[in-house]
Structures are given as C-alpha cells and as structure tokens.
Amino acid sequence: MPFRNSGQSSLAEARRRGRAASCGGMVALRRTHLIYVFALVTALGLRALAVLGYPSVLWFGDSVTYLRDALDLAPSKLRPSGYSVFLRSLAPLHSFTFVVIVQHLLGIATGTMLYALVRRASLAAWPDRPWRAALLGTAAAVPILFDAYQIELEHLLMSDALFICLTVAAVTLLLWRRRPTWWLGALAGLALAAATVTRTVGLPLIFVFVLYLLLRRVSWRTIGATAAVFTLGVAAYAGWYKAEHGEYALSNTTGFFLYGRTAAFADCDVIQPPPELARMCRDWRTYDTAVAPGYSALWGPDSPFKKIRGGIAGDRADRLGTRFAKHAIAAQPLGYLQAVARDTARSFAWTRSAYPTVHTAAEYRFPKRGWRLSGATALSDRYGGATARPRVVEPAAGLIRAYQSFAYLPGTLLAALLLAALTGLVRNRLGGPALLAWLTAATLLLVPPLIADFDYRYVLPVIPFAALAALLAFIPEQRAKTQKVIFRFRAQEGICNTSGENLNRV
After folding, report:
1. CA 22, CA 24: separation in Å to the nearest integer?
2. What backbone phi and psi angles, to 5 degrees, belong to 436?
3. Which of 18, 21, 15 minimizes the C-alpha distance to 506?
4. Is the separation of the CB atoms in 317 and 255 below 8 Å?
5. pLDDT tens, position by position, 217-230
6. Which end of the chain is flanked by fewer CB atoms within 10 Å, N or C?
7. Would the pLDDT of 505 be above 80?
8. Which one-letter DSSP state was computed for residue 77?
9. Cα–Cα distance measured from residue 169 to residue 167, given in angstroms and rounded to the nearest whole number
10. Cβ-contact 202, 209 below 8 angstroms
C-alpha cells in the first residue's frame, strides 16, 4: 500500500469534505424545485379537468377565419395567420382535443419560463437562499398557471395562448443573461417575429426590445442580431402575403379597426369630413347602449363596412376607415385621448363588466352547453373529425366552471403589480431587467385601446409581464456572472448521486 504522510491525508480529507458539502448543496438546491413542482402538478390537474369537461375547442367570433386559413394555408387579409400555421402543423392528427392539450401545454411552458427566469435572478442575488428563490419564481408563475380565464383562453380556438407563450419566450431569452449574447438576441428576435405574425400587437415590442438593449449598453452585435432576425421573420411573412394578395403587409384591416376606435367619440358636426366620407358618419355612442360603440360600428347590422365593395378586409374599406379615423383624431384629439384613457382604466376594475357585449363576455367563460359558430360545421368536421362536435361532460365541466367563478386576477391587483414594479424601477433609477418586463406590459396594455378598442382578452397577455416586473424590480441585480455565483459547487455535480453522497473516492 502506498505510503501517505499526514499532510497528504489531511488534504485528501479536506477534499472529501468539500465534495460532500458541494453534493449536499446541490441536492438541497434541487429540492427547492418541489415548490414549483407542486404548483405545476396542480395547474396540470386544472387543465386536465378542463379537457375532461370540454373535450373539444371552445369557439370565438374569430375562430372561423383562423380555421379556414389553416385548412387552405393562405394568409388572411383580416388578421395575421401565424396561428393558422400553428393549427396547420397539428392538422395531421385531425383532433381538436390534441389542439386544446397543446395550447394548455403552452400555458404551462409560459409559467415555467417565468419561474426559471425569476428563480435564476433570485439565486444570483441571494445564492444562500435557494428556498426564497423557488418561492419567488413560483409566485411569478402563479397568475399564468391558475387564472381561470387564462385556462379558458387556452381552450379557445384563438391565437392568444400562442402569442403569450412566444412573447414570454422572447423576453426570457433577452433577460437570461445580464448582457445577452448575439445568439440569444437572435432567438429573441425570432420569437418576437413569430408573435407578431400571430398578433400584430407584438410589432411595437421590437422598439421596446431595442430601447432596452441600448439602455443596457449591450453590444451592437446583439442589438443588430435581435433587430435583423425580427425584421427577416416579419418580412418573410409579408412576402408570403404579397404572393397571395399583391402587396407587402401583415393584414389589410388597420383602417377598419381604427375606425372602430373613433366610434367612441367621433362627432361629424365637429369633424366635418369630406363628402366621400359622409357614409362613415353616425353617432355610434347612442346607437345601442347595451353594446360598445366600436362593436356596433364594426360588426353591427348597420356598419358602413357592410355596404362597401370588397367587405371589411377590402382595400376600399381600409382606405375609408383610415381616412375617417385620421380626420376624427385630428379634429377631436381630446376625445380620442379620453376614449383611450377610459378603456385603459377598464383593465383595472375589480370586477368584469359585459364589455363590449354580453355575448362576447360570455365567450370568455366555460359554457354550460356546447356550441360552435354557424358556418363552422363543415370546416371543423374537416379539421377535427369526431372531435369537432361540441361536448360538455359533467361533473368535470361543472367543477371548472365553479373554479372560474372565483379564481382569476382582478384588474385592481393588476394595477397594484404595475405600480409596485414602477416603484421598484424608480428606486433603481429605471434600470435593471424589470424595465423590459414593465415596458412590455405597458405596451401590451396601451396599444389595443390606442388602435382598436378594449377587450378583456387583450388584458391577459399583460399579466405575466406585470408579475415578472413586480418581482424583478425588488431583486438586487448582481454584476457577476450568474453561473459563477449560483453554481460554484456544480463542478462536483458529476460525482454526486441523488442522495448527496460523494461517489469519487480519494
């Protein structure tokens, strides 16, 4: 047996103890995931309950357009078709049940990204407080995992669950490192481009991203990669649109929706539009007090677009809507700002109202009876086969309906999250990773009332970023590389088993 002096023995013993401590620390760190695992399993259980109670998709007014474009694989003039491409990728299984399951998994993935991001930031700030990091990370994911309206949104044949997941992925990529590399920027640009061709409200977020990267003094290579990949992704879709419709665009309804925005305040006696716009004049504020003015102006039986050649997505409708909206906003700027402020404030009400219509509000709740849109039967049967038939299966359906009656984030708490985040940002001199989350939340909150109208569906994408910003704003940012601070003992990971024992014998 080789001779060992006392010095060598002491050194070996010290190494052995160091590895044992490292292994024990690694196991302790892993155990903190149990907090999120418990939340994750519960959230999966709620979504399983929804699928059992409602085996097929739930329908919304826009669903038919998405489904038709998925089957024909053509870009829509009414709205971007990124979601239709997503549906087309799932079409070979001919199962709406599978579509619903995938969309619920997108919600789970969104929550997991938020958990990972906040936990990572917290471990960098407090490396000796892993349980705190797990709790804060789980808190970031709770709204997206447990809000019943979010779960119902994932069940709708709509683009929102995909859009939320993609935007959260883009923000997560940019915030994963204090100074993101060029390839993280490129991936973030790609995710944001995919979100933008899913819902155009993602388009202004590229300016938010670039502004944030500039303020963080990130390398020009990273900024360029983010902007270039985003531009290429959106341009590729615009090229597809041109091949189908003859012009570069994402949709052809900007003027249509902007006209709906002006319906809440437009007064033609004040605007005095040119004669060719006279057909657009009507006092929609008093047309039907039970319906939002914008809804009546766009979708009501007397909408001027029903009499315009080419329909609501035609070139003439877009041109007339845009011209009238410009005249209205120029003549009544205060009325426009009041309408935007009023609709933005709806996001912060404690309870939900029947806005824009009673029927629309009901579409955001799990129904007591199954239904699908008129005219959707042939399309849905073609896509989903037997799973296209609407079904409500009790008692699972009743349980998820009961859950939705109380389990959601009131608008007042959303306001509190945004205010808390802003307070933290001011304390940090408007710096740190919380800034990107807060600016993203503010953009997603304000853009719909600015260019269209308020809808509760538009508020749900704001919530994950508001929660993220509120937490990151109060987590101290560390300049050291996160990996060095958190996982200093991870070099020993390869010699640990799950019980924390040292497997490398000196």
Report:
1. 5
2. -65, -45
3. 15
4. yes
5. 999 999 999 999 99
6. N
7. no
8. S
9. 5
10. no
Q: Give dist(CA 205, CA 201) in Å, integer.
A: 8
Cβ neighbours of residue 79 closer than 8 Å, sequence gap 6 or more: 62, 65, 199, 200, 251, 253
Residue 237 has pLDDT above 60, yes or no: yes
The confidence score (pLDDT) of residue 25 equals 53
Q: Which residue has the tokens 């699928």?
A: 51
Helix axes 160-175, 182-196, angle to 10 degrees: 160
Look up residue 285 and give its amino acid.
R
Taking residues 8-29, report their average pLDDT: 52
Question: Could you give the 3-state DSSP secondary structure of residue 203?
Answer: coil
Quick check: helix, strand or coil at residue 58? strand
Q: DSSP letter for 432, please.
A: S
- For residue 191, the model assigns a pLDDT of 98
> What CA–CA distance (Å, rounded) separates 49 from 64?
26
Task: Indicate the average pLDDT of the chain.
Answer: 90
pLDDT at 87 over 90: yes
- Amino acid 501: pLDDT: 39
Q: Calculate the CA 456 to chain-centre distance.
A: 13
| CA dist., res. 456 & res. 76, Å (int) | 24
What would the two tokens of residue 385 be?
């086969």
pLDDT at 326: 96
Structural tokens at position 208? 């938010």
In degrees and rounded to multiples of 5, residue 137 shows phi and psi of -60, -40
The contacts of residue 73 (CB under 8 Å, 6+ apart) are 84, 85, 88
Closest CA to 58 of 151, 135, 141, 143: 151
Q: Are 423 and 471 in contact (CB under 8 A)?
A: no
Tokens, residue 183: 């390839």
The model's pTM? 0.90
The percentage of residues in the chain with a pLDDT greater than 70, rounded to a whole number, is: 89
Q: Three-state SS across 228-294? A: HHHHHHHHHHHHHHHHHHCCCCCCCCHHHHHHHHHCCCCCHHHHCCCHHHHHHCCCCCCCCCCCCHH
154-195 pLDDT, tens digit per residue, is 999 999 999 999 999 999 999 999 999 999 999 999 999 999
What whole-number distance in Å separates Cα of residue 259 and Cα of residue 237? 25
- Comparing 94-98, 282-286, 380-384, the range with the smallest average pLDDT is 282-286
- Calpha distance 459→355 (Å, rounded): 13
CB 253 within 8 Å of CB 314:
no
Helix intervals (H) in 332-433: 333-346, 358-362, 377-384, 396-404, 411-427
Lowest mean pLDDT among 98-112, 420-434, 455-469: 420-434
Q: What proportion of the chain, given as a percentage, has pLDDT over 90?
A: 82
- Contacts (Cβ under 8 Å, ≥6 apart) of 199: 79, 80, 82, 159, 160, 163
Cα–Cα distance between 293 and 500 in angstroms, integer?
65
The DSSP-derived string for 366-379 is --SS----TT-HHH
Look at residue 342 and give its three-state secondary structure: helix
Whether residue 286 has pLDDT greater than 60: yes
